[in-house]
Amino acid sequence: MENIRSAPTGSHHLGRLFLQLQRLERKPRIFGDAGPLTPSEIHTIDAIGMDGTLLMSELAARLGVTKGAVTQIFSRLEAKELVIRAPHPEDFRAVLVSLTDKGRSAYRAHEEVHRQFYEELSTELGEEEIRIFEQCIQKLIRFMEE
Q1: The predicted structure's pLDDT at residue 142
Q2: Which helix (H) or strand (E) holds 95?
Q3: pLDDT for position 10
Q4: Do 76 and 96 meet the contact criterion of CB atoms below 8 Å apart?
Q5: DSSP letter for each residue of 36-82
Q6: Looking at residue 23, what DSSP letter applies?
Q7: Which tens digit of pLDDT belongs to each residue from 59-83?
């Protein structure tokens, strides 16, 4: 019987990337003094940290999840003392969310992880390759959103 083995294709590499992303999604990491945080938790912190304060409904939209899902994540972060919620001063139905000092520390640590990633990437790729890499990521994201 003949053993036919071909070189990995783009779809093979993409499949491996998706498997690796799934593994990462389940693995908590430590950011600053916040303790272990899941990717969904740190990305929630990241979304809040970009603006400092935003509406809970804006947070859900930014993360692309339901208000119920964001409320669950937010409650976990609240229990870890990383976020706080407050009533909107003009709209009693709206809730404003922001980071605590501990949450801002996690936000900065997460930004540092991204900075180090790009620093390491720049040792492997030239500027043009990084630009193409980023374009490919953007196209992949748009494709996956459809």
Answers
A1: 85
A2: strand 95-99
A3: 65
A4: no
A5: EE-HHHHHHHHHHHHHSEEEHHHHHHHHTS-HHHHHHHHHHHHHTTS
A6: H
A7: 999 998 999 999 999 999 999 999 9
Q: Which two tokens stand for residue 11?
A: 């779809």
Identify the segments of the chain with pLDDT beneath 50: none
Which H helix or E strand runs over 101? helix 101-124
Q: Please provide residue 65's backbone torsions phi and psi, each rounded to the nearest 5 degrees.
A: -130, 170
pTM more than 0.90 = no
* Residue 112, amino acid: E
Residue positions counted in the chain: 146
Helix or strand or coil: residue 128? helix
CA-CA distance, 99 to 121, in Å (whole number)? Answer: 30
Cα–Cα distance, 26 to 77 (Å, whole number):
17
- How many whole angstroms separate alpha carbon 2 and alpha carbon 54? 61
